[in-house]
Amino acid sequence: MRIVGHLLFGVWITWRLQRRQAGLEAHSQVRRAWYRRALRLAGVQFEVTGTAPGAPSLVVANHVSWLDIPLLGAALDPCFLSKAEIARWPVIGWLARRHGTRFIRRGAHEARAHVDAMREGLDAGRHFAVFPEGTTTRGHGMRRFHPRLFAAVTDTAHPVQPVALDYETRNDGVVPVSFAGPDRLVPNVWRLLCRPSTRVTVRVLDPLEGGERPRRELAERSRAQIVEALELPAEPIQDPRPGQG
Question: pTM (2 decimals)?
């Protein structure tokens, strides 16, 4: 019930900020505080290591759970790219739209438009976060990084900021709160809430300059940094079959 109340509080404070036409800094402070409280209510304890980027950056991270979004939000306050289905979620979809999330329709050939929108957001002073694996994993390995969205920083002054989301794992390397494959949201959230606590370290790694580097090189180098930080196998795990993940 407290989490539901916190979601509704997010709607109210977003409406207030928009009515007051608050600036970017005020919005950022409110968003980060809101994310931090949401994580506390869910029993998630996290710490941030490394130096947060000062300049607007393309934030790229491994993708394990829906928890990745509030963790990055609390640490760095980026805009997000998300699948179009999220836009239809009650309350959460409305909040995401109001705070700059861009929604991708898979197979709709909209990548160029989203790259342009990401560049506009970066030029306006916001970080943009993407999950280049394209889907979640159980945490025991990483898929390859799709290079397409790295075009947002090629031939620009904006850097790529790799971030390793380091969840506690079981002996088999699987993250207990991962959200992948056939998982459904409500049972997954309930499993998280039933845990005494969940610990995550948000590791902000060395940034990569975009500039004239090819997007494939940026994708491979940022993935390699995250793999090394998480001590995962270097070889990408196989992409899921259609309809999975």
Answer: 0.87
